[in-house]
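User: I'm curious whether this sequence folds into something compact or stays loose and floppy. Could you predict its structure so I can see for myself?
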Amino acid sequence: ETDAGEYTCDTGDQQTTAAVLVKALPVLFKHWLKNEEVEEGRTAVLRCELTKPNAPVEWRKGDKVLQPSDKYEIRQEGTRVELFIYDAEAQDA
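Assistant: Here's the prediction. I'll summarize afterward.
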């Protein structure tokens, strides 16, 4: 539910109405991704932090959008976003 809309103050004899507009702030990065080096067969973890909790994000490798799978786990809790890359192989670089 949005807080934007028309609000009225009514005394019974008179009323006054005003509109409230809520301007959405852009989602920005508080902490950016950092380069990660991992041994073959291990799990690589990429983390970043946003200015807005639970904002929709998309993870990509090159142009390919990553989906949760045995290989990739995407976690998002509040403003923190993480990508786990399991069983790292050379082609995951």
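Summary: Strands lie at 5-10, 15-20, 29-31, 44-50, 60-61, 64-65, 72-77, 80-85. The two ends are 42 Å apart (CA to CA).
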